[in-house]
Design a protein that fits this description.
Blueprint lengths: L15 E10 L16 E5 H4 L14 E6 L4 E11 L7 E4 H7 L6 E9 L5
Parallel strand pairs: 1-5, 2-4
Antiparallel strand pairs: 1-6, 2-5, 3-4, 3-6
């Protein structure tokens, strides 16, 4: 009998986990109304996950933190939800350029198969 190999991805303190493409954007004042502070790691989530109401500034996902894990580098980075990504598919994320290259140093603008999640992003 051959031994069974199991790969396990762990995102600490993450209740809901997703897998999608990661892209990057130039931050401005996003849908959450949180001003960008240079040096801060930020993320925009898809319309489907954000589910903004009449005033997206009141979205409970705004300001929450998510963990972003790259299986190739085996590192987890954390980012604050500050915006909605209109062009993202359900499980895709859009991050600031500096965070993009922390998560995927060899990335070319789009990295598939990025694991991410957070306790307030729904499921």
């Amino acid at each position: 009998m051959k031994p069974l190999k199991i790969a396990l991805t762990i995102l600490p303190l993450v209740a809901n986990a997703y897998k999608g493409d990661m892209t990057h954007f130039t931050p401005a004042l996003g849908s959450c109304g949180i001003p960008y502070v240079p040096g801060t790691d930020i993320v925009a989530l898809s319309n489907e996950i954000m589910q903004n109401g009449a005033n997206p500034n009141n979205n409970p996902k705004c300001g929450s933190m998510i963990g972003i894990y790259n299986e190739q580098t085996q590192q987890t980075h954390y980012a604050q939800v500050v915006d909605t990504c209109g062009g993202c598919k359900r499980e895709d994320i859009d991050v600031n350029v500096e965070l993009f290259y922390k998560v995927a140093p060899d990335g070319d603008g789009r990295v598939p198969g990025i694991d991410w999640g957070g306790d307030r992003v729904g499921g």
